[in-house]
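I had to read the description of the data format several times before I understood it. For illustration, here is how one protein appears when written out as sequence plus structure tokens:
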Amino acid sequence: MSLATGIAALALSTLAACGSDDGPGTPDGSSPSPSTSASASESPTAAEPTDDPADAADLAGTWRDDEADWTVTFKADGTFSEDFQGVPEFRTGDYEVADGVVTLQGGDGNDDEGTIKDGTLVFKLGTLVRQ
């Protein structure tokens, strides 16, 4: 709960300090989006993603919660990037997958744990679905 509160407070203070628009965003945030899960042939290491990811390679890809306006992109090397409420790369860091739990270790010093359930990632902030 403290991470979700911290993220919300940081987002509000960031948005309040920025006004309406803080200038051009980074182009990096939009690069991973074009690939959809319709074609698994693009991934040379895994035939198809599993419903319940068991390790970093299974989790790799873009996950989103539309209601929270929250996107997390997981890389197979164990790093992640979060886009939150229109702020690209709002938080980055490392992640681990163990025993059905995903732990996000943000470079901001905050950790967040989510449960892998029925092909989704359930965090206090929201439920991420593979894109």
Observations:
- Confidence is low (pLDDT under 50) at residues 1-50.
- The beta strands are 61-65, 70-74, 79-84, 87-98, 101-106, 111-117, 120-122, 127-130.
- The longest helix spans residues 2-18.
- The first strand starts at residue 61 and ends at 65.
